[in-house]
Amino acid sequence: MKEILMKYMAKYTSLNEEEQQAITEEIIIEEFEKGTYLIKQGGSPTKKCFFVLKGCVRQYHIDNDGKEVTSNFYTEEQAILLFNFEEPDQSSNYSLTCMEDSVLVVADLDSEQEMYKVYSELEYMTRSMMESYLSNAQTELATFVRSSPEERYKTIIQTRTDLLTRVPQHQLASYLGVTPESLSRIKKRTR
């Protein structure tokens, strides 16, 4: 699993192999069973962030009608960034749960700050990752908003085909903003 991290660091930094190795020795990698909650909606905010080495993590919330609404799926080589840790009185607005047995890098923001002092390139890498993530998220949201449900499904087929077999269809439908029945009709039309 550490090879994946080293490949990722090589992509975003100019750290030499020895520095990359030292960083991977300090990073915490944990295994989580399918069904494990990383965060629960209504729970306390966390200072942890995650990077998926293996597996699939679903982000969702329960709306006012008691219905689960899926907002994202995180799979291999995707960071799960949390933004409400600065507001300790605010509870989490969503849940994160492992859809599969997963292997994640678990980073604590305080220890991450300490690592930045030793490896300034690591801070650059993190910033580059966040910029890339936010840029992609903005693009995906803009595309999602202006797309029809059928176009959203076609985008999933082109960009995240693995989700079609990795997540239950009712959750994929929720992610696309349609009912499971509508998703079935869309799938029939796009065959």
UniProtKB/TrEMBL annotation:
Residues 30-116 form the Cyclic nucleotide-binding domain. It holds the Pfam family cNMP_binding. InterPro entries: cNMP-bd_dom, cNMP-bd_dom_sf, RmlC-like_jellyroll. Coiled coil: none annotated. Keywords: Activator. This is Crp/Fnr family transcriptional regulator. It comes from Oceanobacillus bengalensis.
